Amino acid sequence: MSDKKLVILISGNGSNLQAIIDSVTESYIQADIAAVISNRGDAYGLIRAQLNDIPTHTIEHTQYTKRTEFDKALQICIDQYQPDLLILAGFLRILSADFVQHYHAKILNIHPSLLPKYPGLNTHQQALDAGDTSHGTTVHFVTPELDSGPLVIQASQEITSAHRASNEPALQLASEILEQEHIIYPLAIKWFIEDRLKLSQNGAELDGELLRVPKQLQTIQSEDKPH
Ligand code: GRF
């Protein structure tokens, strides 16, 4: 195992966290998960971490009146672990520019849309309402703007008439897209840990090549395909 360290921020269920834990356990990602930090004490992801003997912390955002104070407390907690990579995995807080700058080129996020389409919330419903035939999910480097920053990899999901006819089209779509997230997020983290993925002044680079458009799961080489 490499001695690289990951710190993972969550707010909820933590299914992406679980996919990352599994990838580390199987040595698909050769790194150590140093800590999992949640802004909510009831996040199920905390239990997932504890079941895997990963240190956990809860920093309730409701205890802070100012965003910058919460971010500072979060930063102090993270920095005791000196992570090589900070991973946002369903972390539902907007982070201040100073915080993001502190971890420049070392923060990844996953967002459930084909960015730059639909930053923010309710992405599945927005794609359905717009009559889109394709939707998906994106891993990107984090910059101070919400759900922005250089794109790394996307997975697409066709929106079919069967989705639209289902009882809960947005939920149906969300669960299918989540499965794709569990593939592309560990893959992007693996690239980063292996020093293949970097954020340069020009943007995200994979194997020294600028990603003018994000990689697409459906078209990448089999050698890069996850387990
Ligand atoms: C995912 O849809 C992710 O794209 C978004 O938040 C959700 C997290 O789900 N950022 P989980 O907590 O990993 O199950």
TrEMBL record:
It is an enzyme of class 2 (transferase). Residues 4-189 form the Formyl transferase N-terminal domain. Pathway: Purine metabolism; IMP biosynthesis via de novo pathway; N(2)-formyl-N(1)-(5-phospho-D-ribosyl)glycinamide from N(1)-(5-phospho-D-ribosyl)glycinamide (10-formyl THF route): step 1/1. One of its GO terms (cellular component) is cytosol. GO terms for molecular function: phosphoribosylglycinamide formyltransferase activity. It holds the Pfam family Formyl_trans_N. InterPro entries: Formyl_transf_N, Formyl_transf_N_sf, GART. Its EC number is 2.1.2.2. GO terms for biological process: 'de novo' IMP biosynthetic process. NCBIfam families: PurN (TIGR00639). This is phosphoribosylglycinamide formyltransferase 1. It comes from hydrothermal vent metagenome.
